[in-house]
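Researcher: Quick sanity check before group meeting.
Model: Go ahead. Protein one:
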Amino acid sequence: MNAILTFVLSVVLPWLLRRSAETVLDKLLDELFSEENLSGLTQFLKLQLLVLYLDWLLQKSPVKKLPEQRKSHKVLVKLSRS
């Protein structure tokens, strides 16, 4: 009985998990790359490329120091008691 349990846990269970993962991944990839999703994926990829380009452009350009203000602005917060 112990040998059968060891065999199941060491051979059959990993094979079953691997096979199930392959099946689920195959279904997900089929759904992801279906005709309906390809146009959305293309639009998403274009947007991501634009964001990467803008990020690179902003990091490349020098940052100008903001001018110092003459007067410091004080903000008064009035606490009300209920």
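Researcher: Fine. The other one?
Model: Protein two, sequence then structure:
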Amino acid sequence: MPFYTNLYSYTNISYWVKSTPSTLLLLKEEKQLIRVYFFTNDFIELEELITDLTHDKNLCIEILQKQPEIYFKTLKPQALYLRLRKTLTPLSPSSESHTNFDNINPKTLHKLLFKDFNPNFDHLPNLKMLQNRFKNRHILSVRTQNIIYSYLIFTHTGKSAYLNFIANYGDKQSLLEIWKVFYQKLNTLEVKFLHLWCDTLNLKALNMYQKENFSIDGLKNYIYIKLSKTNGGGAYKRLRNKYLLTILILGSNREKTDNANRFVSNSVKQVA
């Protein structure tokens, strides 16, 4: 039976680890919760391991799949995100604007993200990541000197880009402006394909993406939350070992349904 995993990219940081002959759990501790990544060929055993864990923060388990073939009996999905896709057409020179859109200081943006988005589900970037986005000019905004009307964050790789976050505090015009400058930026980078993830409960955002001609590509992210508890079994230990992870990643023969951008590209929603 093949091994399955929900770890598609790897950061050389410390993980908490629990393992059996059939399953390896990697627990990444964050400020708000603990993210659970796994390698397994036994989903019954995987669920038992997760159920038995003792932890003082909520656990978050995400599984990417087109159909709910993998599921837990004792845990129910707390959120469902859809991946959307759009094919871009090159802009003509006459449609491009040379309007300057001021960037946002990473420290200010970091505070806004925690106010506007869900830290449990939306993989909010840390300050260092935002500083890199700032340096790479992957943060766009519509603003005056003292007022931010809208902003967005994106990642870019080759001919593809992910829209990570978009927020609009202003009226329809500010929303149209941020989309316009975004498409101009992507046109300059010669991006052909644009992707994003959206919460199925965020109807305002889904409606916005429909108007922008995004379509559902079939991939879904099922997000499970296991509430914290302080008693029970399930000890785990801290381990830093990139060679162990590299061997496991290369050895996994699971058909990859998404690229590494998923865990640095996050959900997108419009702020009312």
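Researcher: One line on it for the slide.
Model: Helices lie at 43-52, 106-116, 127-135, 172-188, 203-211, 242-251.
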